[in-house]
Each structure stands twice: as structure tokens, then as C-alpha cells.
Amino acid sequence: MGMCLPCLGGAADDVVVTPDPETRRRQLADAAEKRQKETTYRGVKNPEAVERKRKKQEEVEKQAMTTSVSGGGGGGLKWQVG
Predict the structure, then answer these.
(1) Gly residues composition bias: which ranges (predicted)?
(2) How many domains are contained in the chain?
């Protein structure tokens, strides 16, 4: 029985203090974002180039949507009666 007491006395020093919930939540969010980024660019040699290409494609699509809406021609179709 005398051997258990020194073990219990030193156990208080080995306790790991957990961070407050807000810090823990931030750490988990950062870790999740990092994992998502790693899986997104898995197998890609140059992720920056892929990101630039994606943004350029989005801009082209946005510009195409803007010009097609402002054209007002209804899609360029003509209606003739006669």
C-alpha cells in the first residue's frame, strides 16, 4: 500500500491542462481548414496556378452573365410574324 501513495502524489504534476472552449474551437476550425485545403490540392503540383485559373474562369463566367443580362435581346432570338 505504501507504493501507491508516491504514484498518486506525482499524478497532479502530469495533468495536461485543456484550453478554454473558444481556443479549442479555433484550433479545431484551423485544423479542419488545413485538412480541407490539403485534400483539395491533393496531387496538384502548383496549387497557386490552379487557384488563379479557377478565379479567372469565375470572372469570365460572371462577365458572360452580365453581358447576357444587359443585352436585353432575350437571348438573341428574333420573332417574325408574316
Answers:
(1) 70-82
(2) 1
